[in-house]
Amino acid sequence: MRLLVIEDDPSVGGLIAAALRGDGHRVDVLESGADGLEALRSVAYDLLIVDRALPDQDGIQVVRALRAQGGAMPVLMLTARGSIDDRVAGLEAGADDYLIKPFAMPELKARLHALARRPARLESRVLALGRLRLDAESRVASVDGRDLRLSRREFALLELLLRRPGQLYPRSAIEQSLYGFDEEVASNAVEVHVHHLRKMLARSEAGVRIETRRGIGYSIVELPDDDEALGRRAIASQAAAFRRRLAEDRGRFDALLARGLADGDLAQAAAIAHKLAGAAGQFGEAGIGAAALAFENAAEAATGPTPALLRLAHDLAARLAAADGVDA
Q1: Does residue 291 sit in the same domain as residue 184?
Q2: Over the stretch 145-178, which tens digit does the pLDDT of each residue have?
Q3: For the domain that residue 148 is a member of, what is the CATH number?
Q4: Which residue of 24, 85, 99, 220 has the fewest CB atoms within a 10 Å radius of its CB?
Q5: What CATH number corresponds to the domain at position 98?
């Protein structure tokens, strides 16, 4: 992900940036609300971290301006003010979460991961084209179940192109996505990344190709596949990918269920069930599909984790465990 941190304390901003860059994210750090809003207008960030007390304006004003101009990325607000009124003010302004200083870095990372997994963003977590599959959360790209060894920026470039297959990305837009404001960019950096990525995709027979429109930019497209054997292999790959996703969904659903589907957990559990209901039957798991649909319908009508809803949740969890080869 590409993140913007607006924090007027250079030591705090630098610490956050170092920790998040260590996890493979691209991070820009700015010290004023005005500079932050200007960056938000020109760069497509995935997430914003903003301090409540900035030298030129309140962080709440930044969030309100962001929402007013249509910015929908998740926002985590940092503050030394811990009163309920302060937290409510930040959330009502449009922030998605609130973290009180001083904080532990693992907690900040956990909150960012939670924001990135919100139901509105679940559909964009896994991208696929041809036989290529990219999981933006786990930062793994694979072909037919075989992981590709990509550098941090090669992965970021691949993710960018896969977000809009067929769309031309100018070289300047790619540079903006791959590099932070304070990073020096070599004149041929994008071309080098594209060259390495092309070789990797061709060698792994990913079924996709990065095309160049000279003087304009790059796009990724799926290669035509007339080979029946390759078609069968692609189907088998999709089935294997579904089995892996089934295991991932089981772990996430079990974690939500362990908390009793409290607060926002119910919406996340319903989002997981919705995806399962639409896909399970196609891969020979009709029982999971039916259980997922029953839970999703009940969850939409429920105002909280009622006993009846929990029974449906436990039934779905048991079916997921059985399909994953784990005792319920």
Answers
A1: no
A2: 899 999 988 998 999 898 888 888 888 888 877 8
A3: 1.10.10.10
A4: 85
A5: 3.40.50.2300
Tell me the residue range of the domain where 249 lies.
Answer: 228-323
CB distance 134 to 178 below 8 Å = no
Q: In whole angstroms, what separates CA 234 from the centre of its chain?
A: 25
Q: Which residues pair with 58 in a beta bridge?
A: 53
Instruction: Classify 251 as helix, strand or coil.
Output: helix
DSSP annotation string for 174-239 = HHHHHS-TTS---TTHHHHHHHHHHHHHHHTT-SEEEEEETTTEEEEEEPP---HHHHHHHHHHHH
**Residue 56 has which token pair?**
């030129």
pTM of the model: 0.45
Query: Nearest to residue 133, comparing CAs of 116, 170, 158?
Result: 158
CA 26, 192, 155 angle in degrees (round to 5)? 40
2 close to 46: Cβ distance less than 8 angstroms: yes
Lowest mean pLDDT of 12-21, 85-94, 127-136, 247-256, name the range.
85-94
The verdict on 215 and 294 lying in the same domain is no
- Single-letter amino acid code for the residue at 137: E
- For residue 34, what are the CA distances in angstroms to 31, 37, 40, 59? 9, 5, 10, 10
- Structural domain contains residue 241: yes
Instruction: Say what the pLDDT of residue 123 is.
Output: 41
Crossing angle of helices 171-178 and 189-203, rounded to 10°: 90
